[in-house]
Write a structure and sequence with these properties.
Blueprint (H helix, E strand, L loop, with lengths): L1 E5 L5 E5 L9 E3 L3 E4 L2 E4 L2 E4 L4 E5 L3 E4 L4 E5 L5
Bound molecules: zinc ion.
Length: about 80
Amino acid sequence: MIVIKCSKCKNKIFKYKKIGKGKVLKCFKDRITRNYDCVVDNDFLKCTCGNIIGSDEGNYYKMNKDNFTYTGRKIKR
Ligand SMILES: [Zn+2]
């Protein structure tokens, strides 16, 4: 599980089940296990501070790599 955080205000955005190595570029909605302070507005996933974390692409969010950080462990497969 990793926790996606806003790079500006450090608020938690959501908890995500990341599978495999590599960068977090996409977050599939069915692997998001808990939502914290996120707002979906006009197909953008935003933090409550207004920072755009990613864009809504249907079944996943395309992540904006400069606008979030994450902590936690990826699941090895
Ligand atoms: Zn924020």
